[in-house]
Amino acid sequence: MAKGRGGWVISFESPGQAKTQRGWLWDRVKAAFRRTYKEKGTKFDWFMKADDDCYYVMENIREKKIFRFSSKYNPDEPWYLGELVSVGGDGYPSGGTGYILSRAALKKFVTALDAPDTKCRKESDEMEDIHMGACFRYANISIIPTVDKEGRHSLIPINLKDLVPDVGERSNFNKWYTGFAKIKVSSGKECCGPKLMAVHYVSYQDMFVYDYLLYRVKIAGIDP
């Protein structure tokens, strides 16, 4: 893997294995985390993998107590944040809203990839999040809950339009998420907490809309 102009040029591990662009997802994620660990592994406390069709409220991610000198979730211990879904087995963190790994988790994950007895998948595949979950379990990396005390979720792996409206016919995305979320989630306004951190399947046009509604609109009588 060589660093090119404006980014990295990645040599994949399993040439000929993937038949589609999505088929390279697992190789891409492994390569990115390996490179990040090599170049930045000791320079930061937490590392975030983000999808380009996910909208992130960075203020809420930064404000989450684990990142503010919390002794419970020390970055030198192996933790990760993710929205856990369960489609058989122990479940896996949905790749749509990404993952946030502690410094120790990043090291353990990268080390586990190359361990002689590794249970981490070697060949590339489009189901990158399923393989992340299996590798995290093999490396004994623990998940940090991303729901509040009322059970409202903050990492949403589908679009809000498929979850917040509790009227009409439920979409397939809604059925998947409400059916397989490891921690129960329901349709309607109580699905998600006020400290929402991420929403998946957001078009680039809607990202501008989200940004406008969150940062430009002032509510009379509430906002200064």
UniProtKB/TrEMBL annotation:
The keyword Hydrolase does not apply. Keywords: Glycosyltransferase, Membrane, Nucleotide-binding, Signal-anchor, Transferase, Transmembrane, Transmembrane helix. This is N-acetylgalactosaminide beta-1,3-galactosyltransferase. Residues 42-138 form the Fringe-like glycosyltransferase domain. Pathway: Protein modification; protein glycosylation. It is a single-pass type II membrane protein. Its EC number is 2.4.1.122. It is an enzyme of class 2 (transferase). InterPro entries: C1GALT1/C1GALT1_chp1 (IPR026050), Fringe-like_glycosylTrfase (IPR003378). Its main location: membrane. One of its GO terms (cellular component) is membrane. It is found in: Membrane. GO terms for molecular function: glycoprotein-N-acetylgalactosamine 3-beta-galactosyltransferase activity; nucleotide binding. Belongs to the glycosyltransferase 31 family. Beta3-Gal-T subfamily. The keyword Aminoacyl-tRNA synthetase does not apply.
